[in-house]
Amino acid sequence: MTYAIETLNLVRVFGDLVAVDNLNLKVAAGTFFGFLGPNGAGKSTTIKMLCGLLKSTSGSASILGYDIEKQAEEAKKRIGVVPEELALFDRLTGAEYLTFVGRMYGMRKEVIRTRTEELLELMALHDDRKKLIVDYSLGMKKKLTLSAALIHDPQVLFLDEPFEGIDAIASRMIKDILKSLLQRGVTIFLTSHILEIVERLCSDVAIIHKSKLIAHGTLEELQSGIALKEHAESNRTMTLEEIFINLVGTDEIHKRTLSWLE
Ligand SMILES: Nc1ncnc2c1ncn2[C@@H]1O[C@H](COP(=O)(O)OP(=O)(O)OP(=O)(O)O)[C@@H](O)[C@H]1O
Ligand SMILES: [Mg+2]
User: Please, which residues have CB less than 5 A from ligand 2, an ion?
Assistant: First the structure.
């Protein structure tokens, strides 16, 4: 089976720090995948490697069967990305930037023009079409980055905290777009600390903690796994936040309990 995203013992080291430790992930095509973890867990480092923004130290990864290093161009053609650090060109307008991105993907001029207009309209950036990106607000930059990630109709979309700094109206609109993309068979790989959003949108979830994968499965599978260990007496379904804190936060709680006992 060809997965939309597959990693095999993927590792990234920064000096003495192992930021991503032997990551093995399989994401089937058409999945809305939530990639969770506390601050500094290794989420953005993983996304950067999967998008070709950062070289892996060892291991391998593929997008729709294309190796991200050996077949980088084939892989990159098929992905769209909203990275953690937005990389826009300050001295361009939104329309100029989208045109630039469209040309980089080798799209036809008329298609770029139509899609640029539609994207600016949809993201409510149309009224600021004369404004340079340097004068954009944070949320406007995020929406423009998302527009650039969508313009070439990618099959796999990587979103690193796409809802951060976005107003409620834009957030709802983005969620609706993501749902329609999913219906078209697009695979979406999302990191977000807003667990209610992940819970509502994602069918599959992985949790990375201290650079290691500690959970990977459907939401229901995670719920049943935890229910057996910690919540055997409770019949109700746990929220993703409870699952997350259970898996990631218990370390801290145990440490505190031990220091009390000493
Ligand atoms: N370029 C870099 N040089 C050195 N260390 C780095 C670099 N990039 C990331 N790290 C380190 O790697 C670890 C993982 O960082 P990463 O950005 O992947 O975390 P994250 O899960 O995305 O966290 P957050 O939720 O805060 O965005 C952190 O300890 C971070 O300090
Ligand atoms: Mg990050």
Answer: 43-44, 84
